[in-house]
Structures are given as C-alpha cells and as structure tokens.
Design goal:
219 residues; Endonuclease Iii, domain 2; Endonuclease III, domain 1; 2 domains
Length: 219
C-alpha cells in the first residue's frame, strides 16, 4: 500500500471512530489549558484532571497563581509528579504572564516557548486548541503510531511531526492529533496491537485476525 493510501486509510478510520474528539485535559480558557498541559508531562491526563479542579479554584488566573506561596502550589500539584520543577515553572510563567502580557496567554509559538517549562509540544497544543492555529503536537502515542503505521520513519519527534504535516492538510492537524491519541489509548497500545486493531489489520492484512475486535465489536 502506498504512503498516500495508508495516510488516507488512517485518517478515515480515526474520523469514523472519533468524529468529534475533545481535548482530554479539562480546562476553561487558554491559561488553564496551558497549566494542564504543563502538568501532563510524565503524568496521565486522568491524574491531571483530578488535580486541576482544586488548583483552578484557588489559582485559575495568572494573577492568582502568581500571588500564591510556592509551597502551596507544590502541595496542590504534588500527585502529578515532578512537583518541585512544575510548581516553579508554573509560578514563573504566571508571573511573566501577569507582568509582561497583562494576564493573557500570548498567541505565538515564539512567546509561548520562551515561558519556563513550555516546550514545542505544549506550545503547539495551546496554539491549536486555544487559538485555532494549525499545529500537530506529537506525543508518545502519535510518535509510536506514526511509525507503527509506516507514516513516518523518523527517529525524533521533530522528524515525525514534519512527516505528518506533509501527509495531511493543516485544517486536519488539530483533530488528527486528538484522534491519534484516543486511538492509541483505546485500541493500539505501546505493548503492541494483539489482536490487531482496525487500522493495523487493514495496513498489515497478513497479521492473524482470530478474535479480532473492531471498536469493541467482534468481527
């Protein structure tokens, strides 16, 4: 199967499974999204979602977070892991947003990536989901699936991101990013794809399909 055909098949199956994907991190605006994504580093979205209600109740704006005691902020996010560095980065970022940006999250990659603890992936999520800017953030699920489905041979996140952006039009990037993640969590895990999911079974038809289930329905 040619690369373009694989890319189309993947996009079609992902859209069929997740026609209206939603950001799994609970948030209410650009700032709370930024905070949630920063907390999600080496932490599950489910865990972040248990932490952020109390955090956002007490510090749901840059001004409120900047006014907190660092140890109190650390206490609120302790179960997310890496709490010392995350608390420091969140505090520094909140102060920068308050002092330089009038409490607003900037809407450019350059400004976002200059914030403490904000890398390209975090900036990409915020730019796409908060501001509607075309971006294709690549996390571990997307990196794994893009290589597993032979959409990319890249050995780095940057290479895989560039390959996926070449394969798909910018208007697809945001939803595809979410669909890849949802599919990887539900149907095609890091432990392998056995029995093969609906996408793997079509891309690699020689894989045995005994007992195969597609979207939870026995085939």
């Amino acid at each position: 199967m040619r690369l373009a055909q694989r890319a189309t098949l993947v996009a079609t199956e992902l859209e069929r499974a997740f026609p209206d994907p939603q950001v799994p991190l609970r948030h209410r605006d650009a700032f709370t999204l930024l905070v949630a994504v920063m907390l999600s580093a080496r932490c599950t979205d489910a865990r972040v979602n248990t932490v952020t209600p109390a955090l956002f109740k007490q510090a749901g704006t840059p001004q409120a977070m900047a006014a907190m005691e660092l140890q109190e902020l650390r206490r609120l996010i302790a179960t997310c892991g890496l709490a010392d560095s995350k608390a420091l980065h969140l505090m520094q970022t909140a102060r920068i947003l308050t002092e330089r940006y009038s409490g607003q999250v900037p809407s450019s990659f350059e400004q976002l990536e200059a914030l403490p603890g904000v890398g390209h992936k975090t900036a990409s999520v915020v730019m796409n989901q908060a501001f509607g800017f075309p971006a294709f953030p690549v996390d571990t699920h997307i990196f794994r699936l893009a290589r597993r489905w032979k959409l990319s041979r890249g050995n780095t996140v940057q290479h895989v991101e560039a390959d996926l952006k070449r394969l798909y039009s910018p208007d697809m990037w945001g939803k595809l990013h979410l669909r890849f993640i949802l599919w990887g969590r539900r149907y095609c895990s890091a432990r392998g794809c056995d029995p093969p999911c609906a996408i793997c079974s079509q891309l690699f038809p020689m894989i045995p399909r005994a007992g195969h289930r597609v979207h939870g329905v026995a085939k």
